[in-house]
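seq:
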Amino acid sequence: MPDIRHRIRLAAVALLAFASVATAQESAPPKQVGVVEITSQSVPRVVTLPGRAVSGAEAAIRPRVGGMITEILYDAGRPLKQGDPMFRIDATTYEANLSSAEADVASARAAVTEAESAYGRTERLQGSGTTLAQVEAARATLEQARASLQSAQAALRVAQAELDWTTVTSPIDGMASVAGVSVGDLVTAGQAEAMATVTRLDPIEVDMYEPSARMLSVISDIIEGRLKMNEKLQATLTLETGQTYEAAGELVAPGFSVSTSTGAVDTRFRFDNPRNLILPGMFLRGQVELGTVQAFLVSQSAATRDRTGKLTAWVVEDGKAVQRELTDEGTWQHNWIVTDGLQEGDLLAVDGLTGLSEGAEVATVPVTFDENGVVREVEGDSAPAPDKTPVTDDAPATE
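struct:
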């Protein structure tokens, strides 16, 4: 009997505790959540791509004539202009060749003068002391002399060019490497080993790599009218330090093939690089603005993504919390670009999300975002009405 009475008392205590909890729950006010009314808007479609800097032009400096290096005329690491001298090769032999070629031209020119005079005399005397055969022979001699003059003049131009090539100049603007030869070294025309390298750094070019699957998705969006392309593609860069590069780049050449090793398409952009901040081989991150899409902007703080990649957010319907699955097309200024899962005028919950459950009753409080992306209550409006201000966030864009 005492055991039965003890059990009855425990049951009564449990019933009383449950009743008090239920009463407390019934008397608790609905949870307050901050909401904004979302509207569809034109949003820039920006893709972030890995990239690598490459030089737009790089020249390996090799001699066009052979000989001994007598001078190195440049300082390594200093900028060079096209035509600036870099090396000097011993010119003694080439100066002698030029003098010989000049003498050959003078001799050939004298021979032409003599042949012209002889042909003129013979032609005038034809029929009165000379025959037609003699006139034709004189004409042939003249043509041969003129041909010899042209040959000598060509040899003179070659001799002059070879003498000029003894001073090796830079073919492009750029930065020169350390010389690979020293004074006294013997070089040969067209040798395999370069004497130095000149690399153009301004402007610099960047290869950006886009997965072919995403490229097909973009093409599909364009065809179906979801994406309105810009007339001109431009790109910005983020350096390895996280710093945003100040210059915008322009498209040089789109990619026309897919890499068999990476499955990506290589697209090249050109950037001004006056301070030589970007060097060939440097890894970068590029942001390319493709165009605009009609979508909803959802603050990243108001949505969550699970391990499977599913993006969800809370909206308020008839005073109750409802979780929606969203389809996004990347980000813009720390907002998700949502193309499906929301409707015009939906109340998006952006504050007070902790502890929300499906179907829970909530009280809406209109809020907005300040210039730093922080949620603020709407001043001068205490009624639980939706806010008309669209989601904004001025933080830098990420992908």
